[in-house]
Each structure stands twice: as C-alpha cells, then as structure tokens.
Amino acid sequence: MLHARRLLTITIAAFAVAAPAAGAAGLPYEDPSLPIPQRVADLMSRMTLADKIGQMTQTERYQVYDDASPITTYRLGAILSGGGSTPTDNTPAAWADMIDRFQAAALATPLHIPLLYGIDSVHGDGNMYGATVFPHNIGLGASRDPGLVRAVEHVTAEETRASGPQWTFAPCICSAQDDRWGRTYESFGEDPALVERMETAIDGFQGGPGQLKDPDRVLATAKHFAGDGDTKYDPNANGYKIDQGVSVTNHQDFYDKALRQYVPAVQDHHVGAVMPSYSSVDWTEDGVGNPIKMHANQELISGWLKGDTGFDGFVISDWEGIHQIPGDWATQVKTGVNAGIDMMMEPNSYQSFISTLTTLVNSGDVPMGRIDDAVSRILTKKFELGLFEHPYTDRTNIDKIGSAAHHALARRAAAESQVLLKNQRAALPFRGNANVYVAGSNADNIGNQAGGWTLTWQGGSTNVIPGTTILDGIRENTSGHVTYSQDASAPISRSAVGVVVVGETPYSEGFGDVGGPQWAYDPGDNGVPRPVKDMQLSAADKAAVDKVCAQTVKCAMVIVSGRPLILDPAQRNAADAIVASWLPGSEGAGVADDLFGLRPFTGKLPVSWPRSLAQEPINKGDANYDPLYPFGFGLTTK
Ligand code: GLC
Q1: pLDDT at 25 (0 to 100)
Q2: Among 35, 43, 579, 615, which residue carries the largest CB count within 10 Å?
Q3: Does the CB atom of residue 146 touch ligand 1 within 6 A?
Q4: Ligand 1 centroid, distance to 485 Cα (angstroms)
Q5: What strand order describes the sheet that includes 221-225?
Q6: pTM score, two decimals?
Q7: Is residue 222 within 8 Å of residue 215, measured between CB atoms?
Q8: Helix or strand or coil: residue 315?
C-alpha cells in the first residue's frame, strides 16, 4: 500500500510537470480552489534554495521584536515564543499585533509565504496574561476523561489562535516512568495506554479534517519523540539528573513505553508536527551500547516515524536540540537535517544555521531531496492552516479569552482531576455550613497551583493570574466561618474542620529534577533561591498538618504538586483525608467543589505513588510492585 508520503510525492511531481494556468488569485499556489499538493508543487517550483532553507528555520521572538526585517531578509518560515517570551504589553491584543507585525515582514518576501508562530500552550496559553490556565497533563490524566481533554484543548486552541499563534508545542505524549523527572507533570501518566486515551488532546487542538484553518484551531505537536520520560536517573550528572538523559533499553521495551503512543497520534489523530526529545536512546539491552541522541536518530525519525508509521507532518527540533549532537556545528546541522528534522528551532543561531545548511546542500552533504521533503511538509501545513488566504490573526474569538465559560471548564477540569487517596471517618465531603480552618503553603497561592509554564518558563509563587485559589473556593462553598493561617499560627477552633494544602513550588524541565539545579530567583522572591526539589513536604507544611489535624474535628491534607510526594507516616496518619490535587491551574475552586461535595471525587492515579524515594522508578507491572497507592487508585464520594 502506498504510504501517504510517497503518494504525495508522486502527486507533487505530476503537478510540477503540468502546472496549470494561473488561478483567479494569481499564481497557482495562490489559488485556494486547487488541491494542496498542487499548490505545494507549484510554489516549490518557484522557490530558490534560500527560500527553502528559510522555511526550515525558526527563531525566537526576541530576535525580531524590535526589528522584524530579518524575517524578510532571511525568508524565515517560523518564529516562536519560548516560556515567558511575551510582548512588552502582555495582553491578547498586543500578542496579535506583534505576530501580525512579524507576518507582514514574511509577506514582504518575493513569494509572500506566510509565517508560522509556535508557542507552548501546554495547559492553556500560559505565556499570555488573561488566558484560561488549565490543570497540567498529569491532572488531566487523573480525570480519565478523554472528552474533557478534548474540550480543554479546544478552548486552549481558541484562545491561542485568537491572540496570534497558529501552532502549539503540545501535547507531550510522554509516559513518565520516574517521578523524580521535572517534567512528570507534563505527562498524562506512566501508562502509554492511558496516554493514548488522552490523545483526544490533538483533536481538541486541530479539530477534524479541514478544520485546521478555523479561527479556533491550532497545529498540534506530539512531543518529545521518543523516550523523554524513560530516561535513567544519574545522581552524578552535572546539572539535570534525569531530564534530557539516556533511555537504556531494548527495542521491545522502548516500543512499549515510548514509541507506541505515536502510532495513534499519527494515524488516528493526524498530529501535524512532532518534536524530537533531547534525550538519547541506548540499545544496551540489545547489545548495542552507544547512546544515540534522538535529534540524530535517522532510524527512528525517518525510518520508523515517517516511513513505517506514515507521519506526513513536519518534525520541529527542540530548542537548540541539534546543538547536543556530537561533533562540530556543520556535523550537527548535517546530522539533524539528514536524520529527518524538517525545521530547526534556532533562537540564537538562525543565521549560522541557514549559511551552514546552504553550504552542506551545495557540497552534496545534504541531498536536495531532503530539503524538498522538509519544505513540502512545512508548506502543506501552512496551506492546511489557511495561512495563504488568511495570514493575519482572526480576532473573532479574542473576547472569549479568559471568559466565564472557559473558567467554568477549567473549574470542572480541576474538580475531575482530584484523586482521593484516604477518607477515614467519612471526613469528606465537608458540610456546606462547616467552620473551616485553612493552612499550608499552597492554600492561597495561584502561582503554585498553576505550576511551570505560567507567565514565565519556570512559573513562580508570585506569578499571579486571573482565577481562584483553593482558599477562595473554600470561602465560596461554606456558609461557616473560615480562618486562614498559612503556618497555622492563628488560634484553632475545636468546632472547625481543617484543610491543610501542602506541596511544591513551580518548576520546569530539568530544574524540577530531584537533586537538580536551582533555577534563578523569581523577581518576587526577594532573591531567595527556590528550594532544591526533593519530593518531600516542607518542614513548615508538615508542622501545619500536625498542628491543624490535632486540633480540628477532622482534617484533610491536600497535595498541590507536579508529581507524587513522599508522605511520612506522621502526616499520613494525622490526616483523616488525603487528596492528590496535582497542578489544578487557574481554578483552585474546583478543588473545593470536591471537598464540599458539589462534585464527587472521581479521579484515579495516573502514576504509581511511592512509599519512598528509593522505590523510584516505580510503575505498574514492575516485579515486587509495592507502592503506597497503586496506579489507578482513587476513592469516590459519589
Ligand atoms: C523547551 C522544551 C520544549 C518546548 C521548547 C520551546 O526546551 O523542551 O518542550 O516546546 O523548548 O519552548
């Protein structure tokens, strides 16, 4: 059976020979009535090598923000915003104005090829102030609700596209195997079968056939291909301890844990882009011991993903991902492009990438066929997005950004993601007239409950966004008296029930690795460095649990974190109820809805909950599997 890819190539070749007369819109490629393969073929036939390599090049907003002319000069195909890379005025209109300004520079090129703008809308468009921020993927995985995930990502797509970006670097379809990984929360869970169920995320982002051009859809990116969540913890590594590490495996295990979820993403959900992982794969267990960087992995990118699996979208490198390939710069460029990467995310080296690749093509080190394959893939997605007809931001839905309806969905998602781990003496749900004593580091901190990728790359305890904290929700849901004292220093009424919200401060990527490096300071942290991640409760939170649960009628410990935390018996036994809240996002009130029975607890663990750090990695199916709470566990209050 002819793969879609080969069929497209034959089609392009056929049209290139018999290019029809110019359509009503001018040149054939500008004629929306023509089939996309024909438009691609016509445009390709008019492109110079500089046009083509420009399309394969993405740089960062900060390179062109003050002067967009390099977009025209270098004929750039795409721009991105990395985490926290925002217009000066961080509003939806300013985003759209900025991206339209870049687009005008792209349309000033000889062939007027429109620009793609990519962003990490990984839990809503977290970069943009005012966006609706949803639970991170680990909480969505806990919901076990594919329909919810589709709806969440559709709203995310609507808010993203209305403010300019037409492309999100999401969803991560990693299956996190070791919770010490700083990106565990970006995973829907440890089980690839669960991850596959949540790939309705791609449908939410892209819609169905022909909908990619609609103002409420964006191109999705399945990432990070492959094995990003399957790397080994290396306590002696400099910097990151597990992120961007090595997956030491064999072909069968690697397929079962890291590759299989790409098959439905490509063949059922038709994801438009794929991003390779920074990590490496080491087939030691098959007797081949040399780690291969995924950004250099031609066998898996061109062979398995594009060839065997039939991926017909384009492969975008991660941020300077080819810089980690062994060898000098020319070797890195040659290896990455020849491996099958179609577009390079080069925030700081785009000019050098262009000149180096040009040299490599002219010397024959990179075949022209590889360039043409890459460019035809990129152009195909631009045509499908409708960018040639509507290159500028369609602001139809801009007023829906952060709307009450969107926040209601975020509140529902937060509620459905809660996992009830313990509920002795039927402590939960609380009555609607209960007097409540609230304590803990994460009870009233919207930055902590949102987590990483919120306003800034790492997120932050002082990153305030529109929404509600868990304390806000508690106040809304009871007619009784509410006392809030983060450190539980205020007097505690014996008639009160207690809620102690504990957990982590935000982090992203390797800065969240257990034992990993500390991130630079948050502006609002007065230069106080963030704690190194250890998957433990802080001493202050432990003390708050001990005190509140000793003096209230009954108490619940709520854990706001990007992953399971190690719970000491003292706090585990002191609390009548224990809730895994994950990173609920902008609507902490959704957590309170479960606490007070407005919604039942229905969530199930998306990852195994370890008894101790020594148990990591721990996953269902392991020999001697003995977690504190197993994968799939969750009490209900229906
Ligand atoms: C980061 C991440 C990737 C993200 C990209 C752009 O390093 O690895 O997930 O999409 O850079 O921000």
Answers
A1: 53
A2: 579
A3: no
A4: 37
A5: 221-225, 273-276, 314-315
A6: 0.95
A7: no
A8: strand
Q: Do 635 and 594 meet the contact criterion of CB atoms below 8 Å apart?
A: no
Q: Quote the ligand 1 centre to 194 CA distance (angstroms).
A: 23
Verify that 307 and 427 share a domain, yes or no. no
**Is pLDDT at 7 greater than 70 in this prediction?**
no
Judge if 186 and 299 occupy the same domain: yes
Q: Which of 169, 242, 456 to mutate to test the pocket of ligand 1 (most atoms within 8 A of CB)?
A: 169
Does the residue 82 lie in any domain? no
Query: Letter for the amino acid at 374?
Result: A
Residue 202's domain is classified under what CATH number?
A: 3.20.20.300
Q: Measured between alpha carbons, how far is residue 288 from residues 252, 266, 283 in Å?
A: 14, 28, 5
User: ∠ CA 638-562-549 to the nearest 5 degrees?
Assistant: 60
CB 155 within 8 A of CB 207: no
d(CA 81, CA 102): 12
pLDDT greater at residue 287 or residue 602: 602
Q: Across all residues in the chain, what is the average pLDDT?
A: 95
> Ligand 1 pocket check: which of 120, 205, 243, 294 to mutate, most ligand atoms within 8 Å of Cβ?
120
Q: Tell me, yes or no, whether 620 lies in a domain.
A: no
Q: Are residues 379 and 408 in the same domain?
A: no
- List the residue whose alpha carbon is closest to atom 6 of ligand 1: 82
Regarding the beta carbon of 347 and ligand 1, being less than 6 Å apart is answered no
Q: Is the C-beta atom of 276 inside 6 A of ligand 1?
A: no
| Calpha distance 453→506 (Å, rounded) | 9
Q: Domain range for residue 41?
A: 36-76+90-112+146-384
State how far Cα 26 lies from the chain centre.
40
> Does ligand 1 lie within 6 Å of residue 203's CB atom?
no
Helix, strand, coil % over all residues of the chain, rounded to 5: 40, 10, 50
Query: What CA–CA distance (Å, rounded) separates 255 from 235?
Result: 26
The CATH code of the domain that includes 485 is 3.40.50.1700
Strands 436-439 and 344-345, sheet pairing? unpaired
Q: Which of 630, 608, 632, 633 is nearest to 179 (CA)?
A: 608
Same domain (yes/no): 332, 429? no
Q: Is residue 181 part of a domain?
A: yes
DSSP secondary structure of 195-262: HHHTTHHHHHHH-STT-TTSTT--B-EEEEETTTTSPPP-TTSSS-SSTT-EEE--HHHHIIIIITTH
> Can you tell me the distance from the alpha carbon of 396 to that of 225, in angstroms, rounded to the nearest whole number?
34
Average of pLDDT values for 555-562?
Answer: 98
- DSSP lists the bridge partners of residue 78 as 58, 116
pLDDT band with cut points at 50, 70 and 90 for residue 523 = low
If asked whether residues 169 and 95 sit together in one domain, one would say yes
